What we know:
This protein is an all-alpha fold. It has one domain: Glycerol uptake facilitator protein (Up-down Bundle). The protein contains 14 helices and no strands. The radius of gyration is 20 Å and the shape is globular.
Amino acid sequence: xxxxxTQQEDLRALPSRAVATHEHLREEGQxxxxxxxxxxxxxxxxxxxxxxxxxxxxxxxxxxxxxxxAGFLLEGLGxxxxxxxxxxxxxxxxxxxxVTAVLPFMHHPTGKNGWLLLRLWGLVLFGNLIxxxxxxxxxxxxxxxxxxxxxxxxxLGQAVMKNSAAEMFxxxxxxxxxxxxxxxxxxxxxxxxLPVIILMTWLIAIAxxxxxxxGSIEVLWLVFNGELPWxxxxxxxxxxxxxxxxxxxxxxxxxxxxxxxxxxxxxxxxERVDEKE
Length: 277
């Protein structure tokens, strides 16, 4: 409790709210970088499984709501289910947890921090894809859904695969950016964190963007049901989408977020040096 109060006092002493938000997220990112590798992997697998809730909800909504005038908008709410589970349960999700981990590297771009960042990215992405594959397998082979719902799962996957590689990439930049924006909003959201998750991920859905984790479940459903070869999962889906998510969510957003507070932090450090002298 005392440590928390001290951290809050330190944050209040920072020169702007933007700096306070940056420092809060940077500290979270540092904790993520230093977590045990197996803990990261298992948490990432759990997140991949949890994201299956997005395909499940979207499929059910598609069956019952697609004929309505606003059916597309209502169907998009199904996309939010997996994100709500993963984020509220503090599971490791590529593009969400991996955004904050970039900030410590930008603050101290050392070889150690670079290695820790690549380790985090690799473990979380690998674990998410394992979880996605397990979720897609379960939805494919468990006799739990009627033909209409199964057809809806296929339609959702085929809708993703209508995009060319370039479209996958560009749409992924947008989703990566929006998720990074959502993460940046969390420190100020307080008790409104759940509505923020729902609104931002709903926007990602209705904007028809692509995401490496949610999209993997939709596309792997097609692979496991023989509607798509494995090669199509890798290209044009996985590689362009992953690249777009990384560029939009990690490089562009994190760089801009870091740049906007760099001068404030430099001024603060200069004042500290002056005080010591």
